[in-house]
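Extended Data, panel c. Modelled sequence:
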Amino acid sequence: MPKVKLPKPPVPDALVPRPKRPGTAEKAGPRDVAKETGISAIDWVDERTGMSGAARWLMFRKVPKGTNWFYTLGSATMFAFLSQAVTGVFLAMYYIPDPAGGAYESVRYLTNEVFLGEFVRGMHKWGASVMVILVMLHMARTFFFGAYKYPRELNWIIGVVLLVLTFVMGFTGYLLPFDQKAYWATVVGVNINGTAPIIGPYLNDFIRAGPDFTSTTLARFYSIHMLLVPGALAALIGAHLWLVAKQGTTAPPWMKADKKGDVGEERA
């Protein structure tokens, strides 16, 4: 007897998807809505500022063959500077540049009482050493790779100035806790600085805000550390990045250009 194939049971009307109307799109989910909102916001800003062209010019650049992890030392240094800037802002919210006990007491309170204060202060303190190390490694890479040669001499000079300002930032920040170690170490450093020919004594008077260490000295160090040097660093880093984007990145010295033909050969 032949088998009789029974038809499948009908799907209930509630489970049958309704046909889409012509010209209507699918219903967007929360992720799609968030994505479209972000794109709309970026388009709104770009239409009024035209920043997309500058961003493409800065980010989407040709990279020479042979680029390796050594080329990330500059970006790592900039990240260390940004970390110092952010943590420094939070520390400045509690710090009191008063040599009569307010400076030391504010640092003690920040370290022991404020929520995550010890963590933020540790990031700022050890981040300074990390930034110095990264700057030195970045300059060593630039030197050994020959990236200081024509046409990048100006960028090399800016990098040297950034190195000096990084040292100044570390030196001025060392006094701010204003304990015995910070005070006497700064006295020694200032006296060594005063032995420089011609400008040494004048530079010492400027740093100390007078011939001797007074209550104004701490305020002078704090203003240099918080306002003068960070502003100069930010401006020079911007110029440094602009020159890198404009001039391009140098290839490693062990990479040789492909020779497609003799230079002196006459071509038809």
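Residues 66-247 form a domain with the Cytochrome Bc1 Complex; Chain C fold (CATH 1.20.810.10). This feature is highlighted in the accompanying rendering.
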